[in-house]
Amino acid sequence: MMRVLGRVCGGILALVVGFWFVTATGDLALAAGLYGTPGTYKVDTCVDTSNTRKDSDYDCYGAFTPDSGTDSDAVSVRLKGTGHDYPDGTEFDARQGIEPETIQRVGFWGVVGELWQVGICVAVLAGLGYQAVKPRGQSRRREDHRREPSRRQKVADRIGYAVVVAISVGILSWIAMAAEPSP
């Protein structure tokens, strides 16, 4: 019964994280400049939407102007959860996605801002894959060290390495975001 419950919960978690991975990867590709309309985002104002005093969650209101356009082509856009209280009038390079309200900061800081999500998603999905692939009933301590590890154990070990790398990428991305200089 517990094995079935574990697999059902693992499947639901995989679906949720898989959806998050797809959206985060799309945002990462937009921040890296792989698609979208290049332009400039100009902040009109930022508002702290958090009800607590400890944490801040900023939504910024402003306008996106495509590089090929004029000020009359500017599109008014609300950026949710920017993580920064940008001063009024701040401008930064951005890309507009397929949907007009999808704006993403481009360049190094834009990529770093999205990379942690992809790292965490890969770590969770790889962890679920590890749980599905690892051999049942074998402990590494009880293994006979003279025997060659099974093919399944070798695959599980490689997936374990992917988990470690993905967690490291996510943590380094968070550290880089914390060290980002204020605009």
Explain this structure to me?
- The chain has three helices and five strands; from the N terminus they run H-E-E-E-E-E-H-H.
- The protein is of the alpha+beta class and 183 residues long.
- The chain has a five-stranded antiparallel beta sheet with strand order 3-2-1-4-5.
Short description:
The protein has 183 residues and is an alpha+beta fold.
Query: What is the terminal-to-terminal distance?
Result: 54 Å
What is the string of SSEs from the N terminus onward?
A: HEEEEEHH
Number of E-type strands = 5
Number of contiguous helices = 3
| Estimated helix fraction | 40-55%
Report the principal-axis shape: elongated
Major beta sheet summary: 5 strands, antiparallel
Strand content: 15-25%
List key phrases describing it:
183 residues, alpha+beta, 3 helices, elongated
Helices and strands in order:
Elements: H1 2-31, E1 37-48, E2 58-66, E3 75-79, E4 91-96, E5 103-105, H2 108-133, H3 151-178
Antiparallel strand pairs: 1-2, 1-4, 2-3, 4-5
